[in-house]
């Protein structure tokens, strides 16, 4: 299921971050009474009724910026138009309609996205129109919704209106027989070129369907008897006015693509190496249990000797140590080098991510592992693993029935994981463990 994206937009100091934190249920955005406060994290996953969606706080105005407020608001509005399914346009109900509000509203109308006009800082929402209520009809955005984010009043009514605008396809389940492949990574690393190579000769393109991730395009295609959907996150437009925030929003776009994918191709620029943005996107894929292939693009521009590739592999493993399971491919979308092997690797990793181990075999592996390397003990009490079973796939998840969770050190759990990998591979996929203590009477 694809998650819709909701962006909160408005001029400074109207309460965007307070609303963001109220909906998220925790203090994520830094809230200050001064406009233009920088916020490090501007997105979160939230739920309302039967819906799950990504909420974005577009506040992020840099305090060092010398630009006028209308220019800053234009940048926020453009980002919201590019990224969101629904836009919450917040204004200050106590201040009344301002020229900045008019300018933002004018831009938002051009987006043709659903806009929910929200009057914040209304002390008694639902108790009759506030003093400036009718002024905002001038914006042509329909009837305003009055709330107080500080007092947590009217927020339920606001969310009811927001989810009314979610696209129908957000509830559609994707075809499980198709391998969904997300091409992720920072801008300008060659994602579009890789997609074009994959969709080259001997590929039957079924159609181009506007995806549920803003500018992303879902491209279903067949390769022999195998069916795929490519989720392209490369469609971020670099405009001068939004350049400062473009990387934050490309991360969000990659996150929404990751959630829908079976396998993620993390594209890294060979000339730049692993960047902080690569780490954020890769970490999100890992946390979501997705299959992962690290694709080092532009390998043709690197001067090489007999040790170059090994040095590069070591650098990636050091920077992305938690992705030790992910295969690394060195390609050039420009020259086509090794591009013909990507789909084979995608299919292999997708199968690994969906693989099940027979329960008997799993317990044999763990039994042998505990004989070769005795479980840890603490204060005379030793860890015992009574039984194991695989609970689910995508990612492969195993339940270990043990005597005491406190005795399962991280290093020993990693040892068990490595033994399972030695026997069954699981290349390209994370492995999860769930620890359950057996009742004393069951031991």
UniProtKB/TrEMBL annotation:
NCBIfam families: GTPase_EngA, small_GTP. Belongs to the TRAFAC class TrmE-Era-EngA-EngB-Septin-like GTPase superfamily. EngA (Der) GTPase family. Associates with the 50S ribosomal subunit. It comes from Alkaliphilus hydrothermalis. GTP 2 binds at residues 185-192, 232-236, 297-300. Keywords: GTP-binding, Nucleotide-binding, Repeat, Ribosome biogenesis. Residues 4-170, 179-354 form the EngA-type G domain. GTPase that plays an essential role in the late steps of ribosome biogenesis. This is GTPase Der. GTP 1 binds at residues 10-17, 57-61, 120-123. Signal peptide: none annotated.
